[in-house]
Amino acid sequence: MQTTQDITVTRSATEVVLVAPAYTLGVALTRPRATIAGPDGELWSDLSLLASVDRVGLPDESSGPTAVTVEEQQDGSVRVTVLSDSSAWATKAVVLQCTPGEVRAHVEVTTEDDDARIADLTMFGGQAALPSGAAGTFRSGIRFPSVFVPTPTEPIQVVRLSNTQAQLGVVGDAEPGRLHGIFSPPPLVFALGRPSIAADAPHGPTDMPVGDWLGVSVVAPIAQLGFTTYRYDALDGGFLLRLTYEGHTRVRAGGWVSPEFVLRPAGAPLTAIRDYRDDLAARGWAPPAPEQADWWHEPIFCGWGAQCALAVRMSHEGEALATDNADGFVLPAGAAFAPDLARQHLYDRWLRRLAERDIHPGTVVIDDRWQADYGTNTVDTEKWPDLRGWIDERHAAGQRVLLWFKAWDPTGLPPELTVRDTAGRPVAVDPSNPAYLQALAEQVTRMVSADGLDADGFKVDFTQRAPSGASLRTHGDDVWGINALHAIVRTIHEAAKAAKPDALVVTHTVHPSFGDVTDMVRLNDVLEDSVHGDPVPVGDQLRFRHDIAAAALPGHAIDTDQWPMPNREEWLAYARIQPQLGVPALYYVESIDNSRETVTDADLDEIAALWRDYRADRAAAGRTQREPSAV
To answer: 29, 93, 253, 322: which has the fewest C-beta neighbours closer than 10 Å?
Structure first.
């Protein structure tokens, strides 16, 4: 037996056991396996120490006898290296760096090929043909009943059964099985829950119970996050972790080292997220919150809910609204499409209605779609005859204006600035092309500068609509997935700040490495039902999201959002707690879209009172901070 500072190392002919304060790791010397247990000796998993780094057209299958070495390091850590033969690489090694508080795992491959492209990476499991004759896909053992997923999904179940697959990343939408892009990207950390917090224990769909958790996070600088998704891939009693690169990360002659997968015990899911953020921050990969302008915290009116509510009423009431032309605009009868209702006259109407009830937003968001084309962000002058003049009027009234921005949409751009499919059709904008980023910066400057529209910033949406697919063609290599999205948001943020230093950029990129390119995090669209088919209260959903965002991006302002609301009662209930969660946001003026209930004068009077109290509380807090009490 040998003690390496805080880690005790015990060796036998078949196993090396590392006993650390936070865990016990038993590494087999005759096969690619290790057991990991908590300080109490209760097993978390029998980990597979196989990994596969598949290349495009060449799957990575391990074979032959493995060589396992365990080395004590001078810094007190212990390095475990598992070598195996590979069908795709000259050499391959899974490496565990064990410290007193955590296990950090990565895979290293080498090649003489100058154009190897990574398709998928699997860790703690992979394809192999072992000397025993066992072959196929190997996984790590599930000895925990629960897994925590830090992004909203539907059905809503924050802590789910451990044999259920889960995915984080920047690919998703409202299609079945894809509604996991509400945060895109979210913090890249799952947490594995011990029996004391079993998924069938009494707790609600958004509860995050304390107990024994093992965080499993992906740690790397943003430049190395060239994958679209991070998946907890479960089958029967086993799991592995998968990063999807889709052939857009190139390995030059020499080799490649994967991001680290960090196993770290935690007492609660939020602790696992905070630890993950601290880990990134310690390496300089999680920038602090930006300095905040006072106006960022002013209550927000976003017109999207009002647009949707009016579209629903038009679709159901038809002719009754066709004569609504008091503002000089004739609403067409019949079915309506909410983006068609982002119109100057309608926003004027809604703001007048609010002002009549003493509701004065500090910030107004012009939502989808004020643009003629999403990709060019030129003004649709039919809907907004004088957008610059309208913004000037808002400024004269003491208000700021944010423009809704649809990320990834290439509509209106030249094909050479886009990601294209095999037929050459544009699929998304291409941030691997410097010419696109330059065009984007010019668009932002035009929208924000005093010589252009003079807007005050952006609500950046649809960050989950990242292109995905090995067949898609890009201008350059190694800009894909999460790091490609970061390039887009960084370009927007830098150009906006250059044109207007206090410009506000709001996103739903709830990942610590986006801390310096987003100013405010929005909690995003509300979902509906639990796994049992029961409606989940709006307040419960948004509290969960607030807690995730605050743990991942501490100090950032939070836009509480407010769409869609199931009914008037839930809308008002959520409005009452919004000031506790962040900046109040109002989406409804005349009616509620889902229930078609009318928004009454009394409802708006309550909103006005809530906003007055919010502003008074902020003013009092500001005075307290400026005037320390005398000693």
So the answer is: 253
